[in-house]
Amino acid sequence: MSDTAAAHEAPTSTGIDHKKLIMWLFLASDCMFFGTLISTHLLYRKLFPAGFTDAEGHQRFIQDLFSIELTSFSTFILLMSSFLMALAVSAMHKGQVKSFRRNVLGVIVFGLIFLGCQVFEFTHFYHKGLTIQNSVLGSTFYVLTGTHGTHVAIGVLWLILLYFYSFTGKLGGHMGALDVEVAGLYWHFVDIVWIIIFTAVYLVEYLGPYGIWGSGLPAVVK
Amino acid sequence: MSSSHEAAPSKAFLAEEVRRYHHFIVLALWLAVVTGAEIVLIYLPLPTAVIFTILTLMSAGKFFAVIMWFMHLIYDKRLLFWCFLAGLVLAFATFAAMLALFSADRIDTRWFS
Amino acid sequence: MSHDSHHAPVACKTELAPERSDLGLYRPDRATGWTDWLTTVDHKKIGILYGAFAMLYFLIGGVEALAIRTQLARPDNDFVTARMYNQLFTMHGTTMIFLGVMPLSAAFFNFLVPLQVGARDVAFPRLNAFSLWTFVFGAFVLNASWLFEFGHLAGWFDSFAWHKALVYTDFAPANGWFSYAPLSGTFGANGQALRFTGVGTDFWIIGIQVLGIASLAASFNFICTIINMRAKGMTMMRLPVFTWMALVTSVLIILAFPAITVALIELMFDRAFGANFFNPSAGGQPVLWQHLFWIFGHPEVYILVLPAMGIVSEVLPTFSGKSLFGYPIIVFSGAVIGFLGFAVWSHHMFTTGLGPVPTAAFSLLTMAIAVPTGVKIFNWLGTIWGGRIRFTPPMVLALGFIWMFMCGGFSGVMHSSAPADSQQQDSYFVIAHFHYVLLGGVLLGLMAGLYFWFPKIFGRMPNAPVAYLGSALVILGFNLAFGPMHYLGLAGQPRRTHTYHAGNGWETWNYVATIGAYILGIGVVIVFGNLVWTAFRGKKCGSDPWDGRTLEWSLPSPVPEYNFAQAPVVATRDAFFEHKHGAKKIGLENDGGEAGVHMPSQSWMPMVASAGFLFIGFGMPMMAMGIPHAGWLVISGLGVLFLGIWLWALEGPGGYMLKTPAPSGAPAPAETVAH
User: Fold this and answer.
1) B31 with B84, same domain?
2) In a 10 Å sphere around its CB, with 0-12 CB exposed, 13-18 middle and 19+ buried, how is residue C417 labelled?
3) Which residues of chain A have a CB within 8 Å of the CB of C236?
4) Alpha carbons C334 and B47: distance in angstroms, whole number
5) CA–CA separation, A206 and B48 (whole Å)
6) What is the pLDDT of residue A195?
7) Can you give the residue range of the structural domain that contains B82?
8) What's this model's pTM, rounded to 2 decimal places?
């Protein structure tokens, strides 16, 4: 939260607060991070469009697992949490700490719902036979969405700490608003990563009989 | 720190915040509508290429809407936008190139379905 | 801010009244001695610590190199076993790159960047301390693998059940510095996670991961400092070239390291949890590791070399008595090198069979990157052309840099041609090439920087005759050691092979290379020994012994804690040189400096947070060894990390005021110039 003494001092060369600048630099770096993860998943979808073989030796398709209702619901939840976060930041700018608390509590609850959906999804997929060990698909899918989930969990933790910190009365003024805005930037970034994942990992699997990658399937499997 | 007890925000600043507040509400509605449209779109009997293109555009639209408005890039200094865009473009270009380098027809995938 | 006794300006921080942080703990602001060094947030002290650790690891990596060369001195030698040889060359490469060159560059960044931009510290002083300690603990974890290896060889673990159950017992990393899968990965279906290597690889994975976090945190900090904390009038195109190269390097780090971070996570999941990212038995593509590694690894090459280029760009103008020739072109070339560095990773993979079009494209891009590098070399030549050259130790080393780096560049251009590269791949020719770049280039550049700035850092002059002797031995030994490797490589000697038979025609030059390596080793010890002696016993010198050009030379040596008593206002490039000899003087900003300078408080929390990585770093490999309950070590490490960050956030920024000498109106005039 409060990191630097220098940030309170003279105005910066660019007029941008240090904390805001460093957060954007971190997010630029995180683009490469999620770029690597997402491209690993897409690469293996391209190479092995057929999905995986479950414990009984049956050929299974990723479309057998996905539930568009669940994923759409959690996507919607995350988008709306982003909206509430924007309102929380706005409230802090206006110095309305109570309004900030209300909104950020909403973000925390929505974030927890998203995580709950993910836990449900993982257990559901696991019981349908997809494990991290039995296929490349399992490895890439669980690690990609799990890493995103970890980012969400860290964000929830951060916001919970900010929520309780606001009761000490120290979260105020320009620096307080900045602390909240930086946390907000992180939260929105987690949201936009999910926007990409929702399309690139989930929706494209519904195009055509075997998803966008299905054109690479040998005729025998089809 | 002296900055922790600043004067109350100015009137112009508050008016600006109210204006942004309305932007946020409109954007939230749009995000919900576009996400709904995406889900409908995948079931429409259109050529895959068309749906795929529209999905990509919609996703990119949502992405940029969030970074521009929710993340304040449109209100903030331009430098932040370029900082982030550098990472984004580099990630996209690098991994597009890497995906293109892997060609399914040069890798024997028969053994692993 | 409440002006209680802690906040009234004092001349020395030991005079401060004790102050409690928001947590109720005493802040270590008044500390001296060990506590002061462990809790410091002063960029200069952090820089010195980075430099000290880097020099220590240079020596460790050097001992590993000498062991390698001793083994290769004669054909069919058995000085070390094949297994030990693999561990030696792996740890030599890893140590030199991640624990030698990068921290030494970080030492220069830390010490110089705030001084050169006219700032009083970096943007995030406590984050800077976090970077330092994370590096220290990561380096320790990586090298602790040697302790386990020696314990194993000495038979200490023989009676333990977990040790008897181990299939592979190599405890130090043995995969080479790029740890190619599948050797570093796993095989077998359905999560069997059978391995080709022992826990050394796990030490390597977690060690590099932790070091990456340290580099990332430091780089975010430097970019912020350079972009945001420039003195008035210090526009981007007035920044010293070293600071420019620090900026480009930091940008490269934040954009390149995430790729290796993810690759390491994937490899860790393969080994620890039976995932299949690089597992060939389940369809994983080992070549994906190569892609991800080199997407990081090639920018890494420029991360290593650009700081040295920045140093040379400061040293050459100073000792030529001329301003840098073509400043904008040098800056632009540096940025282009950084940018193109992301577009050439596959030239490390020509022999994997990329197909004709990608091979041609990467070949062309690689040749293109030689252009900005050549531009820089011509600009350096233009700088010394017609100058009044003073052959001081830093100048000698900087000139050595140009010449040796150019040789490395020439063999690099040879590699860019894919057909030639497929002949040279994995041969000693490659070893010769990158040692000319990294040793002849980077190490000479960094040594030039050490000799150039040591008078500023410690206020003492190095012994010049000893410095000349050391430099001469380094350059002579280096050429003797690595020059013959060009020939050996083209004559077919493969790299990473623990011995060779007599009769291949390699005996003579291997013997010569070993002699050269020992001369090089003696030279490095003399160069470093001279520096250590300088730090404690060197002859005291004034603030500007070299007739310097940039802002740091306008400050007393050693530099006071607050750097600038009053913030400078800069009117031109090479501001201090113009101030001394030209019309454009450095102004002083009336920023309330006479009331005292605000200093950030010291803190234990960055080190506490970093200590979490120590637990994780030992816990992960110990889990892989099968030591019972080692998982708890990892979990407690995560707990310590979280606790450290949390307390760090809650303790509040603090800060105190230091009195500065009465403003004299302008920086001190130039003192007598040595040499």
Assistant:
1) no
2) middle
3) none
4) 47
5) 10
6) 96
7) 76-103
8) 0.94
